[in-house]
Amino acid sequence: xxxxxxxxxxxxxxxxxxxxxxxxxxxxxxxxxxxxxxxxxxxxxxxxxxxxxxxxxxxxxxxxxxxxxxxxxxxxxxxxxxxxxxxxxxxxxxxxxxxxxxxxxxxxxxxxxxxxxxxxxxxxxxxxxxxxxxxxxxxxxxxxxxxxxxxxxxxxxxxxxxxxxxxxxxxxxxxxxxxxxxxxxxxxxxxxxxxxxxxxxxxxxxxxxxxxxxxxxxxxxxxxxxxxxxxxxxxxxxxxxxxxxxxxxxxxxxxxxxxxxxxxxxxxxx
Length: 270
What we know:
It is an enzyme of class 2 (transferase). Keywords: ATP-binding, Kinase, Nucleotide-binding, Thiamine biosynthesis, Transferase. This protein has 270 residues and is α/β, with parallel strands linked by helices. The chain has helices at residues 21-31, 59-70, 86-96, 121-131, 142-149, 156-167, 215-228, 233-249; strands at 7-15, 35-47, 50-56, 75-80, 103-106, 137-138, 173-176, 187-193, 199-205. Helices cover 36% and strands 22% of the residues. A 9-stranded mixed beta sheet has the order 3-2-1-4-5-6-7-8-9, sandwiched between helices.
């Protein structure tokens, strides 16, 4: 029975207000019934008003965190989130290239939901060159998919074309998340291109709220949890979409402005 409980891992930054980053991942892991571990790449000082300071972890410390998890635990799936610079990205690549942690979901934290660039040019290219080819799934948001594909994504045909372009960068499966910063839209529609060539659209109603911090983290970490439990990629993605939608829809009153989503939500909530 040693090490038989389902275990997962996030390699990401720490958000002090608990709304995003590794904290959102760990809350999602617990909500989905798996044991979550974390390798911290950075730490952010912030609250619901914004981010006010940040610091990167030394690469030797990142290496030691990963080594200690490799030496003891049986991780079935993992994700990466914020990887701040080329050195950190390269360090993580070297540590995981022998596939020690099962399924790899890459949340490419490149551009915010409002279109602001988060990575310098060198780090952006390092992420594509080194980590994309290792990923079982990437989950770019609308703006990240625009940047990565070089397309404007003005219609479904362009989104489909973008997904095929992203496949050529190396990841096995692609999930392009729909645009959701425009209050005029009625639903958020994502496009998924699977490794075997099958594809599908998946949508949920748009929720007008400022409590959306950590939605991308929650979606990707829920996929990780479901893959670790044995779901197929398609089913894991669909489960994660529903869980994240319910976590947004059923607000939790925390913070003054841009608050977290609700990880206490249950599957049977409609």
